[in-house]
Amino acid sequence: MSLKPIYYIYGSDDYLAEEALNSIKAEALKGGMESMNYQSFDARGMDASEVVSAAYTLPAFSDRRVVLIRGADGLKAVQEKGLMEYVSNPSPSTCLVFVSGASKVDKGSAFIKALNERGYLKACNRLNSVELSSWIKKEAKRQGKAITEGAARKLVSIVGDRLRDIKGELDKLALYTGEQDGISEADIDSAVLDLREETVFGLSDALGARDVKKALRIYSKVSDTDTLKILGAISRHIRILLKLKALLRKKAVPQAMASSIGVSQYFLENYIKSSRRFTEAELERAVFALHRADADLKTGRAPEAVVMPRLIIELCAMM
User: Fold this and answer.
1) What are the pLDDT digits (tens) for 181-198?
2) Which of 187, 266, 284, 296 suits a disulfide with 302, CB 3.0-4.6 Å?
3) Runs of H (alpha helix) within the chain
4) What is the spatial distance between Cα 87 and Cα 79, in angstroms, rounded to a whole number?
5) pLDDT tens digits for 118-170?
């Protein structure tokens, strides 16, 4: 791997960004002495002159050193100005790495323009459905498994499009299938918790039908899962439906809707169908109920065994 002196890693997929950072660190610090050749800064309140000084410092008993700046999307104009001279004349023995969680960069910024002109920008945004299938196949192959296109698509439909979640489920599937050469849709049905059908969409359907028994039954199937994770998934789903209501009123095009609500177009039709089952007032009341449940869980005001069943009963009454 031929290293560049500067990288500005940005994007909405934290797993891809972490992979990129780890790859740079592994290559730059492969000679050892990481503790002496690795320095990290937080962009908030950071002094640009300190970063420049750290970047110009020679590595100790190694060919390279790494200087990391996290939260780079929070850099102020005065900090960027202080880094501009270094960008034009970086140290060949340092990898200065900026990491930003923003999905886009400010192309009007002189700092970003300078980085872009020198090829230092690296985007790590969420993959589309075709890219996801390709990534899943490559990762499965790396683990000694073949996975069918149908199985890859099913995995995405269950887990979502975050690579960190997909990677976690693939790791489980590799263990589950043992000596078996491939991963099939049947394996996924058997081994992976179907959050889409059993919690998010399933619970939404049951709540929309005001079917308390069905909603409680669905929840009981996944009650051994982290309650906050289930609550978070349902909250995200409800908020997406609310956003979608507004976008549908504006007659936004599908691609714009998918981008705005932060989901793959692959799932968009399911969300549209779900949004039409509820009024905005019902969804807004549901958001407040979810907030109360979240506060009860985090403060310990009520036990988990009480909070979720009570929430389900409340939502069935108000949605």
Assistant:
1) 999 888 887 765 444 445
2) 296
3) 14-28, 34-37, 48-56, 77-88, 110-117, 129-142, 149-159, 163-177, 185-191, 195, 201-208, 212-221, 227-249, 254-261, 265-275, 280-299, 304-318
4) 12
5) 999 999 998 988 899 999 999 999 999 999 998 998 888 777 788 888 888 88
129-191: what fold? Answer: Helicase, Ruva Protein; domain 3 (1.10.8)
* Tokens (6 digits) for 317: 């009454």
Cβ neighbour number for residue 242 with a 10 Å cutoff: 16
Per-position DSSP letters for 70-96, written without gaps between them = E-GGG--HHHHHHHHHHHHS--TTEEE
CA distances from 73 to 6, 125, 199 (A): 16, 15, 34
What number of other Cβ atoms are within 10 A of residue 162's Cβ?
16
The CATH architecture one would assign to domain 6-123 is 3-Layer(aba) Sandwich (3.40)
- Sheet architecture: strand order including 65-70: 38-42, 65-70, 94-100, 6-10, 121-123
On average, the pLDDT of the chain sits at 86
User: In what helix (H) or strand (E) does residue 183 lie, and over which residues does it extend?
Assistant: strand 182-183
Fold of the 195-318 domain: Zinc Finger, Delta Prime; domain 3 (1.20.272)
CA 175 – CA 144 distance, rounded (Å): 11
Position 13 pLDDT exceeds 70: yes
CA dihedral 203, 281, 290, 246 (to 10 degrees): 80
pLDDT for the residue numbered 28: 93
Every domain of the chain and the residues it spans: 6-123, 129-191, 195-318
Average pLDDT of span 236-261: 85
Residues in the chain: 319
Q: Give me the sign of the Cα torsion angle 5, 9, 15, 18.
A: positive
Alpha carbon 70 to its chain's center? 17
| pLDDT cut 70: percent of the chain above it | 92
Structure tokens at 214: 């069905």
> Are 38 and 64 a contacting pair, CB within 8 Å?
no
